[in-house]
Specification:
- By secondary structure, the chain is mainly β.
- The chain has a single domain, classed as PCu(A)C copper chaperone (Immunoglobulin-like, Sandwich).
- It has helices at 4-14, 146-151; strands spanning 26-34, 42-51, 57-63, 67-78, 81-86, 90-92, 98-100, 106-112, 121-128, 132-141.
- Strands 1, 2, 3, 4, 5, 6, 7, 8, 9 and 10 form a ten-stranded mixed beta sheet that branches.
- The protein is globular.
- The N and C termini lie far apart (48 Å).
- The model is unreliable at 11-21 and 148-160 (pLDDT under 50).
- It binds copper (II) ion (CU).
- Copper (II) ion binds at residues 44, 73, 84, 106, 108.
């Protein structure tokens, strides 16, 4: 059976890397979370998602070991009260960075396995519809330093 040789070379071709890392079109800027008091079991992660490609993309999920559950959330006004709601996706369009911040879109960490301590990092995996999975290191910041941290010029680590 001389079909064996072509079949083998096809198999080798398929096992080659299916995608290259340099095609990544989503840049994750300054992922951070607020430190959590020991009595609080939920937290949230914030960051800016920048689409450097030409096509629209969406953040469709996130996961990590930091908490029992990780959800995408937004804040909505309901009967005059601000409430958090889980959402299925966060749109990330070219030229329109998606800003996740307190009081708005965020990645909800439900059931923290341990308190978030300022100065520590924890990993999260972001799942995009087109860009695929992107790992990030989330930096935990002090409660009161939110404003000054955003204005200061200290070098933040880059998420790759
Ligand atoms: Cu939330």
């Amino acid at each position: 059976m001389n079909i064996k040789l072509p079949a083998l070379s096809l198999l080798l071709a398929l096992s080659a890397p299916a995608f290259a890392a340099d095609t990544a079109t989503i840049k994750v800027d300054k992922p951070w979370a607020r430190e959590s008091p020991p009595t609080v079991t939920n937290g949230a992660a914030y960051m800016t998602l920048v689409n450097t490609g030409k096509e629209a993309d969406r953040l469709v999920g996130a996961s990590g070991e930091v908490s029992a559950t990780v959800e995408l959330h937004t804040h909505l006004m309901e009967d005059g009260v601000m409430k958090m709601r889980p959402i299925k996706a966060i749109e990330v369009n070219p030229g329109e960075p998606a800003v996740l911040r307190p009081g708005g879109l965020h990645i909800m960490l439900i059931g923290l396995k341990k308190p978030l301590m300022a100065g520590e990092n924890f990993p999260l995996r972001l799942r995009f519809e087109k860009a695929g999975e992107i790992p990030v290191e989330v930096k935990v910041r002090k409660m009161e330093s939110e404003d000054s941290a955003q204005q200061s010029h200290h070098p933040d680590h880059k998420a790759q």
